[in-house]
Amino acid sequence: MVSATGLASCTTTAGSSARADAIRIRGYYFPWGTKRIPYSSIRSIRRVTITALRGQGRIWGTANPRYWASLDPSRPAKSIALILDIGSLVRPFITPDDPGKVEAAIRAHSTAEVVTGGDRRRPIV
What we know:
4-stranded antiparallel beta sheet; 36% strand
């Protein structure tokens, strides 16, 4: 299991080989449900800088129906978020403690494109 600490982690399926197959986002569903996203479903990763009006003040949920911020009580102290395009209308907005480690794990196990220049299009979450 590759763990990135915080509320997002990369997991393996029990009984399988050591190959990681999904990212798990704890606190995604109310009240404490976990969302499991297979690496094969991740189309792209966008790294964005967050500010008080652009996601940092949002502990859980959204003000924008295109994004969903998983529960993260420590989000106000963080400055980087990852937005995952999984091919659905709503995109997970996560703030792992070590975004570089989560991004690297996703890139290592999928064909996800890393979208750059995300600061110009930071969402209001």
